[in-house]
Write a structure and sequence with these properties.
This protein is of the alpha+beta class and 187 residues long. The protein contains five helices and ten strands; from the N terminus they run αααααββββββββββ. α2 crosses α3. The protein is elongated, with a radius of gyration of 24 Å.
């Protein structure tokens, strides 16, 4: 059977997805219920699998055909991040972590702010160049936003427009507090 450009592209895509999920050819073959040589031949573009065969191989990942064909072929950046993958930036109140901080072209900022007991952002108000949405993940936070002050508890949230002066404080003497904050950068 002749090797086609589309067969090679399909094989390379399967290989990238398999490796991106941390599977060896043998592991994927076992999970999908096919032979190891089937995976190898598809990845090398030596065979062009039928829709049913490809669907069976993808079931070992698991991934649907539509998901497989919708995936970007050149996606090389990490998608998942563990707590240890995110650097802790020391702050007066505790620390901040940014999800996918080193991702080139990142347009969304997603932060975890950890407040030690009896700590805050300080007396001087902070501002952001971008709108920010936040959710109190744990504990209680006293938030000053513009001329408004409110005590927020776990499960409550806030939305600050760009350039709104704000301060945050964990008034608890014993319990830490965490805030999850998202903002969109750009334009």
């Amino acid at each position: 059977m002749a090797v086609t450009q589309s067969g090679i592209a399909l094989g390379l895509k399967l290989k990238a997805i398999r490796e991106g999920n941390g599977f060896s050819q043998r592991e994927l073959a076992k999970r999908a219920g096919v032979t190891n040589s089937s995976i190898s031949m598809i990845e090398q573009g030596q065979v062009s699998p039928s829709v049913q065969s490809l669907e069976k191989v993808l079931s070992g990942i698991p991934m649907t055909l539509s998901h497989f064909f919708a995936c970007g072929e050149n996606q090389t950046e990490d998608v998942f991040y563990g707590e240890n993958d995110m650097q802790k930036h020391d702050k007066p109140y505790g620390y901040m972590q940014v999800l996918a901080e080193k991702l080139v072209g990142r347009s969304v900022t997603f932060k975890r702010l950890y407040f030690r007991p009896d700590s805050g952002t300080g007396d001087a108000p902070l501002t952001s160049f971008f709108d920010q949405a936040g959710w109190i993940f744990s504990g209680n936070i006293l938030l000053s936003a513009g001329s408004t002050v409110r005590k927020l508890t776990a499960g409550e949230g806030f939305y600050l427009q760009a350039y709104t002066p704000f301060r945050a404080c964990n008034e608890s003497l014993t319990e830490p507090a965490e805030i999850i904050v998202a903002s969109q950068e750009g334009e």
